[in-house]
């Protein structure tokens, strides 16, 4: 049994292990940064990502950026051209259908799992993203609105504490993000988008899993319609 005198020693060991815990490597940082750029529509299908140019853009060394791009290529997010360059793939209609079947299955489920776990801080982040999204739509800055949309969704999904499912969802977002860059901004209805996200917030506050799933399915189907118009 632990004695009271053991507590200071335990605290000292805990602090030591925290200091020794490995920090994120530069390759992991580069991977996360490129992933976010893909999810936010910074690149579009067919874009060529040259290692040196990406390294300059991120202000990260060539080697970690090369490792990050190779990792994304290995996961199927990018197509490898050669050792120095990748391209953003152009999705077929069949692949888009596959991705959205996956998203419609996983995203409402992981959001429902988050209902009883989401923190006050996460709610504050959701509210901040809603305000920023509305402001971006008002300024017709659709890329900024899309970025806030991503932050909104992942603030919910991360609260579920399901890292494996979360990584699968991130992979799907990396695949479709570039397509939204090609979409006609006028085809999206900002009023509808904000109404749906308000519905998501309300369902979370009420802890109503059925309503939460319904609102998220509406949001996903709205995005799917927009992307289908690029292929059909």
CATH H-level name of the largest domain... which superfamily?
A: GntR ligand-binding domain-like
Strand line-up in the sheet with most strands: 1-3-2
Number of strands: 3
Name of the CATH architecture of the largest domain: Up-down Bundle
CATH class of the largest domain: Mainly Alpha
The level of helicity is over 70%
Alpha-beta classification: mainly alpha
- How many DSSP helices? 10
Shape assignment:
globular
Number of domains: 2
Order of helices and strands: HHEHHEEHHHHHH
Describe this structure in words.
The protein is mainly α. The chain contains ten helices and three strands, in the order ααβααββαααααα. It has helices spanning 6-20, 26-39, 51-58, 62-74, 93-114, 120-138, 142-159, 163-182, 190-206, 209-231; strands at residues 48-50, 79-82, 85-87. It has a three-stranded antiparallel sheet with strand order 1-3-2. β2 (79-82) and β3 (85-87) form a beta hairpin. α3 (51-58) crosses α4 (62-74) and α5 crosses α8 (163-182). The longest helix has 23 residues, at 209-231. The radius of gyration is 20 Å and the shape is globular. Residues 1-21 have low confidence and may be disordered.
Summarize the structure.
This protein is mainly alpha-helical and 232 residues long.
List the helices and strands and how they pair.
Blueprint: H1 6-20, H2 26-39, E1 48-50, H3 51-58, H4 62-74, E2 79-82, E3 85-87, H5 93-114, H6 120-138, H7 142-159, H8 163-182, H9 190-206, H10 209-231
Antiparallel strand pairs: 1-3, 2-3
Helix pairs in contact: 2-4, 2-8, 3-4, 5-7, 5-8, 5-10, 6-7, 6-9, 8-10, 9-10
